[in-house]
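Input record (Table S2, row 241):
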Amino acid sequence: MPTLNRRVFLAGAAAFSTYVIVDRSWGQVTQGPFRLPPLPYPANSLEPHIDAQTMELHHGKHHAAYVNNLNEAIRDHGELAKRPLEEILANLNNVPESIRTKVRNNGGGHANHSMFWQVMGPPGTDDGPEGELRQAIERDFGGLEQLRNQFNNAGASVFGSGWVFVTVNKDGRLAIKTRPNQDTPLMDGERVLFGNDVWEHAYYLKYQNRRPEYLKAWWNVVNWKAIGDRYKRAKSGDLGI
Ligand code: MN3
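Output record (manganese (III) ion complex):
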C-alpha cells in the first residue's frame, strides 16, 4: 500500500471503526484504471451455501489481486485501458506480447469474478428463470433441471482450476462451456450469461474436495432476476463482461 494511502487508511481506521470493515471487505487500495467492484450484498448473505469467510477472501483478496495485477501489467500501456475489458480480452493478440499472459490471467480473472458476484444473491428470494430466458432454457436444454445437471457435470469435469459457463449468442441461444484457469468465452468473442467458479478457493473452506456438492448447492444462490437482465442485454447487444 502506498505511504499516503496507508496514512489515510490508518487515520480513517482510528476515527471510524466502520472504515476498517469496509476496507477489509473491499480489499486493498489499488491504483490504476481497473477497480474492484463492491459486492452487491453482505459477505454473509449467501450462507449457508457459501460461507462469509470464503466470500470475504474470494472477493477481498483473490479478486482484488487480479485487479491489482492487471493494473500493474498495463501500467506502461495506458492506451489499453481506454477500451472495455471484454474488447481487450477478445483481442489478446493485439496486447503486447510482454504483458499478454498477465492480461489474459488477471483480466480474465477480473471479468470472471465481476460477472460472478452479479449472478448470485441471497437464497430464498428467487422465483427461477422467467419469460424469454425460461423459454430459451427449455428450448436449448429441455428445462431447468437438465441445464443444472449438464452444467454441474461440466463443472465437475474441469481438471484443476477453471470455470463453467452458460454463453448466449446474439440470437439468444444458450450453450455450456468450460475454460481452464481464468480464461473466459469472452476471449473467443462470445458473451457470458453466467458462470460458476470451480477453483478450490471458491469452495474449499466449506466443501473441501467435494466440488460436486458445491456445484449442487450453488444453485440456491443463483440470482435469476440478474441473469434475466443479462439475457435481455445480450440480445440487445449491450452485455459487457
Ligand atoms: Mn475465484
